[in-house]
Amino acid sequence: FVEHHAGSEESLLEMITLTLTDMVDSRGGGYGEVETMVSSAHCVDRPVCALVLAAYSVVSWGADAR
């Protein structure tokens, strides 16, 4: 996972793509295509927040794992 903030969606997507590409290249690849979803808000009177959730399926590593 990476976290960035920027003044424009274009700049944000460029930073995310460059960071993830570098991470995949330095870790040997095999991670599949980068998929993104961008949400934005303009702060006027109150702070704003973005929440990201990544859910994984659970897979046992051995016969004794629960």
Task: Describe the secondary-structure layout.
Layout: H1 9-26
Structural account:
By secondary structure, this protein is mostly helical. 27% of the residues lie in helices and 0% in strands. The chain contains 1 helix and no strands. The longest helix is centred in the first third of the chain and has 18 residues, at 9-26. The protein is flat, with a radius of gyration of 17 Å. The model has no long low-confidence stretch (mean pLDDT 80).
Name the features.
mainly alpha, 1 helix, 66 residues
Low-pLDDT segments, ≥5 res: none
Q: Count of DSSP helices?
A: 1
In round numbers, the mean pLDDT is: 80
Strand count, sense and closure of the main sheet?
Answer: none
Residues in helices, as a percent range: 25-40%
Shape: flat
How do the SSEs run, as a string of H and E?
H
What is the total tally of β strands? Answer: 0
Strand content: under 5%
SS class: mainly alpha
Radius of gyration (CA) equals 17 Å
Report, as a whole number of angstroms, the end-to-end distance: 26 Å
Give a summary of the structure in a few sentences.
By secondary structure, the protein is mostly helical. It is built from one helix and no strands.
